[in-house]
Each structure stands twice: as C-alpha cells, then as structure tokens.
Amino acid sequence: MLKIRLRRPAKYRIYFLILMIIVYWLGFNLLPEQLTQTSEQLSLAVVSALYFVLLPLLYWYWIIKIGAQKSWKILVILSLSSLMARLSYPPQIAEYFEFIAWLRFPIIAVLLLIELYLMVSIIKGLWQARKASGDPRLAIIAQYAATVEQELGNGANELRTLNIEGASNTDMPKNQMPDDKKLTLGLILATEPASWYYAIPYFSRRHPASITPLKLLSAQPWHALVIIMCLIAASTLSYILLDDVSHIAAVFVSGLILYSVVLIAANYRISRYYSLYQREGKLIINNGIWGFMAIDLTQISELKFGAFVTHVQPQQMGGKSVGDSTAINATEILTIGRGDTANVQLIFKRPQTYYGGMGQLPEPLTVINLVVDEPQVLADALGILQNYKKVS
C-alpha cells in the first residue's frame, strides 16, 4: 500500500489550498449581482471577511509562520483576494478593485514574454548544460553569492559561509543576510538549465557519482511514466477545451504542460542516479528536482544509524545543543526518502538550508533524516566514522 508522509508545513499548505478554493467558490456563488436587500449586504460582508480577514490570517499562520517563510509573502494572498473580489463582487463594489483589471495588459505582455523566454531558455539551457560538470543550480548560486560579496564590500569575507557551491548555510546576523528575493529569482532561473542538464544523459556524463541512492518514489520508472502520460493527457485535454475560446491560449497552455515532461525526466534521473553525492567538500542531497541542500562536511556534527521517525519526542534529543547551535526542540524533522522509518540521521553544528519547492521554500534545519540504500557506504564516503553512532 502506498503511504504518503507529509510534514506539518506541507499539510498546512494543502489545508490552505483546499480552504482557499472553497472560499473563492462560495464568493462566486453566494454574492448577488446587485445589492438591493439587507441580506445581500450581509452576504457581501461575510464574503469580504473571508477574503480579506480569514484567508490572510490563515496564510500568515499556516504558510508564513509554520512554514518559516518571509512576511512579505502575505502580499500573495492579498493580491489574489483582490483579484477574486474584482471578479465576484457586485459591479458597484467591484469598481473599487478596478486597478486589478488594468493588470490584464501587463499580464498579456508577460505571457508573450514567457513564450519568448521559453524558446530562449531552451536554447540557453541546452548550451549551458552542454559543458556543465555539476548541477547548474549550484553554479548560479555561486554567481549570486559572488555578486553579494561585491555589494557587501569589506564585510564580504563573512559571506563565504554561504556554501558557495551550494545552499545558503550560514549563521550571519539577519541584517547581513543576502536578499532572499534575489536568491529566489536566481533559483527559478537555475531550474531551467538544471532540468535539461539532468534530463539528457549526455549533458550529465561528467556529474559526480552517487554515494548511495536515497529511496525515493520518483526514482521508479513506472512513476515517471505515469506522470508523463498524465501530462500528455492534460496537454491534449487543455488544447481541446481552450481551442474554441482562444487558439493562442490553447497552444500556449497545452505547450507549457507538455514542456513539463523535461522537468519530470530530470526529476526521475536525479532521484535514481544523483540523489546523494559528494562534491568539493560538500554533501549534496537532492530530493528529486523539487528540493536540495548542500552541506559543508565540516558542519556535520554527528551521523547516526538506526530507526528514526519523523516526529521526535523532546526526550530523544534531551534538550542538548548541537555544536554552537541552539537546542533541537522541534517536534518534527525533515525526512527524505520513503519508508516507515529513516535509517540515517545527520545532525549539524549550525542550521543548514533546505531549498524546497524548487528553491522557493527555504527552510533552516539542524537535523535531517535520510532513507538510504547503504548507510555504511555513506559513512565511509564522508570519512566521519569517528563521529557516527548506532542507535538501536
């Protein structure tokens, strides 16, 4: 039986998505076309409270606080609620959200730019991946880190804890941390050449060999085949449904869905061949194409063998600090790999950043669980046998 294990932040993201769909559906179906009665005004007040009070509050707590995201992302749900208000409110109220309607012109321009970007990015991604010797995402992050170093001037030396070839893992003060919005954009752009680099075996022929693979569902051939077939079906269906409305929209949407096949192919090859490897003094962990982290080997405090569950009781850690970091008091830790329990646990001296959602959901971690094929091979490769413990 297929078991789906979700961490607390992921569960709340799904809860919020379902609730958001329900709220917007209620708004479109409950609001009248005209406000002529007191009951209709009451309906408008209730829907407005759902749009601009309930959803933002839940987004702040479920997505930003529980998911450890930046506060500025609250603008996402406020903008979306404003758009839904413009489309669902009675005309005399909707006109106050007319500024949203003006966005249709830049949106059309953006769609055209996306079409151009896709064509350019395909060619550029193929060219960049042709000579790459490692994950292009890590190279782009290195370029970003170098740019930030120049901006910081004399204080640039402290930024070298960024794991230049990987993720932003540092204990720098918050006021000296690089702008995460720039890094987010950089990772979006890096995903394109990375998908081509991993999707085509010839491009990744010089990639460092895997230490031992993680046990990931996406590493199974049948999983990739099912998703590709679903994408082909979705692309065909979207073209049929949209062709009567707009031929351009039909071609764009169906083409964009079909283009995702490259991403799925990359996800499969990463999960199967490159999920766990070592490069230039760092341990690279790839959770498919969707998430990754680069850990400096000097920041690994302990490597443990045994059976580890996702939910951790406080007494398991004993409230002790790990290296110079604060005590591990979280009730849930990230587990990468499929299985009832993890067989490897890594504990870090300082928080290391895991970039989920293709780099859009960064999360600092002090401990991580892995489900690997051969734990002993991992310990031998990292050369930290003196620091590993076997947990019964």
From TrEMBL:
This is PH domain-containing protein. The keyword Secreted does not apply. Keywords: Membrane, Transmembrane, Transmembrane helix. The chain crosses the membrane at residues 12-31, 43-64, 71-89, 101-123, 222-242, 248-270. It comes from Shewanella scandinavica. It comes from the Bacteria. The lineage of its organism: Bacteria, Pseudomonadati, Pseudomonadota, Gammaproteobacteria, Alteromonadales.
